[in-house]
Amino acid sequence: MKIEVISYQSEWPRLFEELRRAAVEALAGIDVAVEHVGSTSVPGLAAKPVIDIDIILPQWERFGEVVRRLGTLGFAHRGDLGIPGREAFTRSPRFAFAHNLYVCRPGTPALENHLKLRNYLRSRPDEAARYAALKFKLAERFPDDIDAYCRGKTDLIGEFLLAAGIDSDSVAKIRADNLRDE
After folding, report:
1. CA 27, 15, 39: angle at the middle one, nearest 5?
2. Do 152 and 141 touch, CB atoms closer than 8 A?
3. pTM (2 decimals)?
4. What is the dihedral of CA 100, 102, 108, 112, to 10 degrees?
5. 3-class DSSP state for residue 81?
């Protein structure tokens, strides 16, 4: 699958809202927060056109029920895929656009990293532009190698996370996890 990075699209917030609304309706009566994360959540930032959504579930004992209810929307649980506290789901055929859906435990490093990176880039358009330039360059250099593309972003993401207040040990672990396939 070819890696495609495109300029920011004004429809991305609307697509997130479509996912958010469906998830909230399916999970009615369960205490959740729903966050738009990833590059499409940062106004003006170039991105792969994939909407990333984190559903934060404070009552983890209800996770099985959440899996069942998300299944009614066409999502299937895939497991944590090696990232503790972040459970991944398949894309749902109900939505005609690319998306990733995760259910996260509050306070876990994966969730905190998503939120802090998003908030940092939203508050620093200069850094978002720097990140976009790198992503365009990496997509051109590694058009068919998502692992190389992701590894190529690791140092800059680490720099951003440090600036956003993530401790250096956590950033070192993130970097090691991202580079472990080298």
Report:
1. 105
2. yes
3. 0.93
4. 40
5. coil
In the predicted model, what is the mean pLDDT of the chain?
94
pLDDT band at residue 182 using 50, 70 and 90 as cut-offs: very low
| Pairing relationship of beta strands 99-104 and 86-89 according to DSSP bridges | antiparallel
CA separation for the pair 104, 167 (Å, rounded)? 20
Give me the residue label for tokens 């994360």.
37
Output 146-154 pairs: Cβ under 8 A, ≥24 positions apart: 146/1, 146/3, 147/181, 149/3, 150/178, 151/178, 151/179, 151/181, 151/182, 154/178, 154/179
pLDDT of residue 175: 80
- pLDDT score, position 180: 60
Measuring CA to CA, which residue among 82, 37, 85, 34 is closest to residue 63? 85
d(CA 53, CA 179): 24
Confidence of residue 22 (pLDDT cuts 50, 70, 90): very high
- Name 73's Cβ contacts closer than 8 Å, sequence gap at least 6: 22, 23, 26, 92, 94
Looking up tokens 């999502």 gives 75
**pLDDT tens readout for residues 133-175:** 999 999 999 999 999 999 999 999 999 999 999 999 988 887 8
